[in-house]
């Protein structure tokens, strides 16, 4: 693979990681503006329904902040961190994701739709479109068989066959 195509692959990867870092920052902003509450009721919770709520909904505020219903609020933070680690992943080296720009393009579309567009107003929309545009370029790069240095390293590891030591 020529040096220019590898440089192009690295540039696409850096722009994608930049969009993931923006998504991570968007997650931090979202958590800062809408911080989770640690308020847990016990004394004020009864065993019978009152006029405003049922007894089982007494700690619904905790559920909305820390239960599974809170996952969407944390989505930009986790997806952005995961995407930013794709440059030099360390722990993700085991699964080797992404191995090509087709996978990376699908990841960026997932990031845009589930972690960018719905958060942070215009900042989220701009971040989402950066991810979508980078995904489109990634699909073109996949069609042209362009790879980044990281993808070439993964490919070399896959082709490595250890010798039997007898």
Question: How would you describe this protein?
Answer:
- With 166 residues, the protein is an all-alpha fold.
- It contains six helices and no strands.
- Helix 1 (3-33) runs antiparallel to helix 3, helix 3 packs antiparallel against helix 4 and helix 4 runs antiparallel to helix 5 (122-143).
- The chain is elongated.
- The model has no long low-confidence stretch (mean pLDDT 80).
- How many helical stretches? 6
For the CA atoms, what is the radius of gyration? 22 Å
* Beta strand %: under 5%
- How many beta-strand segments? 0
Shape: elongated
Oligomer: single chain
Largest sheet: none
Note the gap between the termini: 35 Å
The helical percent reads 55-70%
Poorly predicted regions are none
Order of helices and strands: HHHHHH
Structural class: mainly alpha
Q: Report mean pLDDT, rounded to a whole number.
A: 80
List the main descriptive attributes of the protein structure presented here.
6 helices, single chain, mainly alpha, 0% strand, 166 residues
How are the SSEs placed, and which strands pair?
Blueprint: H1 3-33, H2 60-66, H3 71-84, H4 101-116, H5 122-143, H6 149-159
């Amino acid at each position: 693979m020529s040096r220019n195509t590898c440089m192009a692959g690295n540039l696409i990867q850096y722009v994608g990681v930049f969009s993931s870092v923006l998504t991570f920052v968007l997650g931090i902003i979202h958590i800062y503006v809408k911080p989770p509450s640690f308020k847990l009721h016990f004394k004020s919770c009864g065993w019978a329904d009152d006029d405003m709520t049922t007894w089982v909904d007494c700690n619904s505020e905790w559920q909305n902040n820390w239960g599974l219903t809170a996952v969407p609020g944390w989505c930009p933070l986790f997806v952005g961190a995961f995407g930013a680690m794709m440059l030099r992943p360390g722990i993700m080296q085991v699964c080797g994701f992404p191995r090509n720009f087709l996978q990376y393009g699908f990841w960026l579309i997932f990031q845009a739709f589930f972690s960018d567009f719905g958060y942070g107003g215009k900042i989220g929309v701009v971040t989402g479109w950066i991810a979508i545009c980078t995904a489109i370029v990634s699909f073109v790069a996949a069609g042209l068989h362009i790879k980044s240095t990281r993808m070439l390293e993964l490919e070399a590891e896959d082709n490595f066959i250890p010798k039997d030591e007898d």
